[in-house]
Amino acid sequence: MRMLLEIVRQSLSTLWAHKLRSFLTMFGIAWGVGSLLLLVGLGEGFRSGQKRNMANLGSDIMFTFSGRIPAIAGSQQSGRKYQMTYGDYLAVKNEAQHLRGISAVINREDIRAVSEFGSTNGQVFGVEPVYNQIRNVPIGAGRWFNDADNADHRRVAVVGWELLKNIFPGRPAVGASILLNGVRFDIIGVLAKVGRDANNGTNARIFVPISTMRMLFPLTLENQEDAISFLNYQPRSTDEHALAKQEVHAVIARRHHFEPNRRDTFEDWDTVDNARKVAKIFDAMDWFLGMVGLVTLGLGAIGIVNIMLVSVTERTREIGLRKALGATHRDILTQFFVEGAFLTALSGGIGLFVTGTLVFLLSRLPAPEGFDPPRIVPFSAVAAILSLAIAGIAAGLYPARKAALLPPIEALRQE
């Protein structure tokens, strides 16, 4: 223990004797450790922020919109945009084998909502009762509509959190009524706020049973009856999302008399596929940022090796004198190895402390939309510690071996 304290004292003395050189060398190690942890932590914060935003939609959500009928010689419908119908939805629901849940959606944005306290224009969605199991529509007060509401064409509505500011400012909405284009609807539920901010579209929507929507507010499209806006569904499992999409395409294409694999026949939004692509991008980014940090850490280790070699050269006579007085090869090797490892550990500890403090401070600040505060990732912390250990061994072993192999007589002759 006494010998170890003496080695630490000598290391600090050497650092103090060459302040600028020591500072620059230690800065390289600290910067490498800090950049490795911080860059990976920032990447993970962005990844978790995007994942949280996707979770605001729901889990494994898929959308299919109408496209255009492909160009076929002699066909009068060739190249025209077609419109999905409620019959298409029923056919998909009955025939598709790889769906966990599906809902047709009718979306109108031209319906005026009026209460005794105010009025507003918002999106009115006609959806199936199962919609709340597909999408993230948390109920803050009241309830979601059920199969009986849909089967009986009841005029009931669930209102988004954001709309309450205009039509029920500071007042309870559940149990009250609103007029949608002059038709009275009873409010049976209010959604809790979706997302961290109020800019999520769900917060500004009014949901009604799709049977009521079809009866009172159908889509007004030329030469098209019983049209729907799009299909919203979930695959039976994430691995079956492509099969689910193929089934949906096949049923609709058969009903509209075109090939399902033609280009532009469908417009899809597959959040499962998007999430996987984004995850691959973030994985590549994590590896890139991690390698940048490791390279910086390696350059700092080279600086430690350099300062230790200079130290060996400057203390050649001291080494010779110690060996002449009986110091063994192992004593000299241990001394310089511990000095190199101490410098590496001290630099790395400073880097870890500064990075941890910075991450803590950033976690207290409001993060931009789509970002979460950076965090220390366990994998990157383990990688930094292992890299530090390797750097410490490399920084101490080679100079220590060179010092230990110096012949005592030759060392004492050095000026």
What does this structure look like?
The chain is of the alpha+beta class. It has 13 helices and twelve strands. Strands 1, 2, 3, 4, 5, 6, 7, 8, 9, 10, 11 and 12 form a twelve-stranded mixed sheet that branches. β8 (177-180) and β9 (183-191) form a beta hairpin. α2 runs antiparallel to α12. The model has no long low-confidence stretch (mean pLDDT 79).
How is the secondary structure organized here?
Layout: H1 2-17, H2 19-57, E1 62-66, H3 86-95, E2 99-108, E3 112-114, E4 119-121, E5 123-127, H4 131-134, E6 139-142, H5 147-151, E7 156-159, H6 164-167, E8 177-180, E9 183-191, E10 205-209, H7 210-216, E11 230-235, H8 241-256, E12 266-270, H9 271-314, H10 316-324, H11 329-363, H12 378-404, H13 408-413
Parallel strand pairs: 5-10, 7-9
Antiparallel strand pairs: 1-11, 1-12, 2-5, 2-11, 3-4, 3-8, 6-9, 7-10, 8-9
Brief digest:
The protein has 415 residues and is an alpha+beta fold. The chain has helices spanning 2-17, 19-57, 86-95, 131-134, 147-151, 164-167, 210-216, 241-256, 271-314, 316-324, 329-363, 378-404, 408-413; strands at residues 62-66, 99-108, 112-114, 119-121, 123-127, 139-142, 156-159, 177-180, 183-191, 205-209, 230-235, 266-270.
